Amino acid sequence: MPTDGTSQPPASSGSSASPREAYQRVKRTPELPAPEAVKMRMAPIAAIGTLLWAVALVLTQIFRTELADAGREWWGACALTGVIIGLLGTAGMAVADKRHFGKKQDD
């Protein structure tokens, strides 16, 4: 920054350089290769989440009267919704995994 109080760069700053050359001049870190994408199956993760919602649904049915007395009978509906959406998500992840990983080839 100039010391004369102006915000203009000095005339000898080499403004004829292309943007790429200017970038290379001020670049401080080397280019790093992009990391490999993590390849993992998503269907088991969705299935575990669905299983947890199913456990919550069973628990809400066991403690139905206590939940109703506390004004939390809606927890059962929430758990049922989690199971339904989880089943849809698990099916979707199974299809995506099959497309992504293809059929296993036994050698």
TrEMBL record:
Biased composition (Low complexity): 7-19
Pfam family, one: DUF2530
Annotated spans, Disordered: 1-34
UniProt keyword terms in alphabetical order: Membrane, Transmembrane, Transmembrane helix
Alphabetized InterPro entries for the sequence: DUF2530 (IPR019681)
Transmembrane segments: 42-62, 74-96
Entry protein name: DUF2530 domain-containing protein
Organism of origin: Glycomyces lechevalierae
Classification lineage: Bacteria, Bacillati, Actinomycetota, Actinomycetes, Glycomycetales
